From TrEMBL:
It comes from Inquilinus limosus. Residues 10-281, 316-409 form the Amine oxidase domain. InterPro entries: Amino_oxidase, FAD/NAD-bd_sf, SQase_HpnE, Zeta_carotene_desat/Oxidored. Residues 411-433 are annotated as: Disordered. This is FAD-dependent oxidoreductase. It comes from the Bacteria. GO terms for molecular function: oxidoreductase activity.
Length: 433
């Protein structure tokens, strides 16, 4: 049995890494020259810096991130800020505060005014438990009452985790994040930043791991159609030609939802997207700890700082994605300076990156359309942050989807009724629509 992993983003790489760990032969097909999907890094000449295509907030409670980085030997490539907790700069109120959960599960931190959001009371935090009881149609704004806790903590977390405005975002989707992190205490809620860049953390070590385990990663190999017979995939049609599959081969499809819908008959994944705008600014190289700050009432939602570069993220950026880069740079740089006053000065060299289809919209309606990993075709499995992982469309969700797909393949290969026991007639070029 060979497993054909279509798509070299994080979901596809996680699947391939897990297959390699268990000794199952696999081949990865990536349409672009370089694997990584949205988790890319490149040298930007205007800044003379290596920058990430986009910023991603990782938390210490993201267990699939930990599992993946442990497998590829890259756990040490994430750094924690020197300051504990979540630091926020509230531009509307002209103040700065830090939310500092205690390390254990018993949340005594809400009893101390210096650890919680200003102007909130301990009982306000019971709203977090309301998320756990949310129904499938509930939105974050519909479950959590308005107030300082909502404005300064719940809404920023919802928008960044779900890339959807809080009045549209799934309450269950946010609870999936809270349950894994904040509900388990401060030890699981530490923000983590790539020491250098995301590719150096998540992609390059994975490619090295796959190379050591003799997993081939074929770049510039676009799968333009799947050939089906008797409800099975029997061939991949590439730009370079048709690749027949052996009777016991399996396929993991780890591509964006629009491509998956084109390749797989009858698949109707979520088709509404949300944009993200990222701004990257050249700053002096200083031997300072990595840092992160949330912005309340500004243009940016988060500011990430590491030696030589300050980066900003605006999630669910519908109102900004079409604005001129020069205008965005001025607005975002102002937020950088408010978060880190020592950087005050003229607008430095910058790069604005607009991801118009960054993630699916994660409203209750769209959540209901997320498909599971199994398909009606016994040798085809789905992976990607847009599948029904029970998590938002994040790095954590991508990795979980890849691991699950690999688990399904392993179970299918071990099943007495698996494909290796069956014979498949030669293909009749039936293609996906």
């Amino acid at each position: 049995m060979t497993v054909h992993v279509i798509g070299g983003g994080l979901a596809g790489l996680a699947a391939a890494v897990e297959l390699a760990r268990t000794g199952i032969p696999a081949v990865v097909y990536e349409a672009t020259p370089r694997p990584g999907g949205r988790c890319r890094a490149f040298h930007e000449p205007a800044l003379d810096r290596v920058i990430d295509n986009g910023n991603h907030l990782v938390l210490s409670g993201n267990r699939n991130v930990r599992r993946y980085l442990d497998l590829i030997g890259a756990r040490d490539r994430l750094a924690a800020p020197a300051r504990p907790g979540f630091r926020f700069v509230d531009l509307e109120r002209g103040r700065e505060f830090t939310v500092r959960p205690n390390r254990g599960r018993l949340p005594w931190w809400v009893l101390l005014s210096g650890r919680r959001v200003p102007e909130t009371r301990p009982r306000d935090y019971l709203a977090l438990r309301r998320l756990s009881k949310a129904g499938p149609e509930d939105t974050v704004a519909g479950v959590v009452p308005p107030g300082e806790l909502y404005r300064c903590l719940i809404e920023p977390l919802a928008v960044s985790a779900l890339n959807t405005p809080a009045d549209e975002a799934s309450a269950r989707g946010l609870w999936a994040v809270v349950e894994q992190t904040l509900a388990k205490g401060g030890s699981q809620t530490i923000p983590l930043i790539a020491r250098t860049d995301l590719a150096d953390t998540f992609i390059n070590p994975a490619l090295d791991y796959l190379h050591r385990h003799r997993v081939t990663v074929r770049t510039g190999m676009r799968v333009k159609a799947l050939e089906f017979e008797d409800d099975r995939i029997v061939a991949l049609e590439l730009d370079q030609g048709t690749l027949p599959l052996a009777p016991d081969d399996q396929v993991i499809l780890a591509v964006p939802p629009a491509i998956a819908a084109r390749l797989v008959p009858g698949l109707t994944p979520p088709d509404t997207d949300e944009p993200i705008v990222n701004g990257h600014f050249a700053i002096p190289f200083k031997e300072e700890p990595h840092d992160i700050a949330g912005i309340v009432g500004g243009t940016a939602h988060w500011v990430f700082r590491r030696p030589g570069i300050a980066s900003t993220t605006v999630s669910a950026a519908r109102g900004l994605v079409d604005a001129p880069a020069e205008e965005l740079a001025s607005l975002l740089w102002a937020d950088v300076v408010r978060a880190f006053p020592d950087l005050a000065g003229p607008l430095p060299a910058y790069r604005i990156i607009k991801e118009k289809r960054a993630t699916i919209r994660q409203s209750p309606t769209d959540e209901a359309r997320r498909p599971g990993c199994p398909t009606p075709y016994p040798n085809l499995w789905l992976a990607g942050d847009w599948t029904a992982t029970g998590l938002p469309a994040t790095i954590e969700g991508s990795l979980l989807s890849g691991f699950r797909a690999a688990d399904h393949v392993r179970a299918a290969g071990a099943s007495p009724g698996s494909a290796r026991k069956r014979r498949v007639r030669p293909a009749s070029r039936g293609r996906a629509a």
